[in-house]
TrEMBL record:
It comes from Neolewinella antarctica. It comes from the Bacteria. The lineage of its organism: Bacteria, Pseudomonadati, Bacteroidota, Saprospiria, Saprospirales. Signal peptide: none annotated. Residues 229-253 are annotated as: Disordered. InterPro entries: RpnA. PANTHER family: PD-(D_E)XK NUCLEASE FAMILY TRANSPOSASE (PTHR41317:SF1). Pfam families: PDDEXK_2. This is Transposase/invertase (TIGR01784 family).
């Protein structure tokens, strides 16, 4: 089973009988003082305090027995404001800790963990695939150690089985290669991975589960193909626009500015193509908003302007 599908991710990590798998994965990323012994799943939808407030829907939301709160998000395609969304989501877990009456404002730790099937633009020239973000002061010292954002850029993880050294390596290898394996690799003989492989066997699914997985797999492939195609087309169109602008200027500086302008135009065209492609395969506007990061009114405008 592909763990990067919605069904696969929640089957492995989001079901009560399998919470030891989630605990094992989370503990690979947490400081020792926040090691999880047990946790409980919470409702993955949080509503604002008023009707006009937006709501947040997480892939997984859980709380440890010692109070730490965790959002675990699987993001399949690049989103313009994914980091903004992470901060927005974490605010719900902070606000819900408020207590009525006398309260000293003590907070439990909040972790937002993003498992990304893409690479941030600003990190594309870096080798690091594991990022921990904290609140720091002007001396680069941690100002508040109870709020952390952890991002894993899966496409950058290139290790093969023989190169796996740590349990964290093994987890990332599973995310990258589970769907390609027909048997459990020798380096994944630990008890927790034995259970994971058993949970992930499609042959163990009920008929409704198999149907749900196939639907989820189709959706994953559609999103992946749309993102890959639109990204490539946007780059090619942007480069061509940039070259044309550069020729008109006839100067080195003009070429530089033209290339930048071309990339911007390519990005605009990329947005339009992505929205139209998603709409064509039947995705609702709210899902297109979630995947692309574009505003709803912007998406509606694109669809209205490009009606067949």
């Amino acid at each position: 089973m592909n763990p990067l599908t919605d069904f696969g991710f929640k089957k492995i990590f989001g079901e009560e009988p399998n919470k030891d798998i989630l605990i094992s994965f989370l503990n690979e990323m947490l400081p020792e003082r926040h090691t999880i012994q047990d946790l409980q799943y919470s409702r993955n939808e949080k509503l604002g305090k008023t009707e006009v407030d937006r709501k947040a829907i997480f892939d997984l939301y859980c709380t440890s027995t010692t109070g730490e709160r965790f959002i675990v998000e699987l993001q399949k395609a690049k989103q313009n404001y994914f980091k903004d969304r992470s901060v927005y989501y974490s605010s719900f877990l902070i606000q819900e800790q408020a207590k009525k009456g006398d309260w000293d404002f003590r907070l439990e730790a909040v972790y937002t963990i993003g498992i990304l099937d893409f690479v941030f633009d600003e990190h594309k020239n870096e080798e690091d695939y594991y990022h921990i973000v904290e609140l720091k002061d002007h001396r680069d010292e941690v100002f508040f150690d109870k709020l952390k954002y952890i991002y894993i850029e899966l496409p950058k993880f290139k290790k093969q089985e023989k190169e796996l050294e740590t349990n964290f390596d093994k987890w990332l290898y599973v995310f990258r290669h589970l769907a390609e394996l027909d048997k459990r690799p020798a380096k994944l003989r630990d008890r927790i991975f034995e259970k994971l492989f058993e949970v992930a066997k499609i042959g163990n699914f009920t008929a409704p589960e198999q149907e749900a997985y196939e639907d989820s797999l189709k959706y994953y492939r559609d999103i992946k193909n749309i993102a890959d195609t639109s990204h490539q087309e946007g780059k090619e169109e942007g480069r061509e626009e940039g070259r044309e602008e550069g020729r008109e200027e006839g100067l080195k500086e003009g070429l530089k500015e033209g290339l930048q302008k071309g990339l911007e135009l390519g990005s605009e065209k990329q947005q339009i193509e992505t929205v139209l492609s998603m709409h064509k395969i039947g995705l609702e506007i709210k899902m297109i908003v979630q995947v692309t990061g574009l505003a709803g009114d912007r998406i509606i405008k694109i669809l209205n302007e490009n009606k067949a």
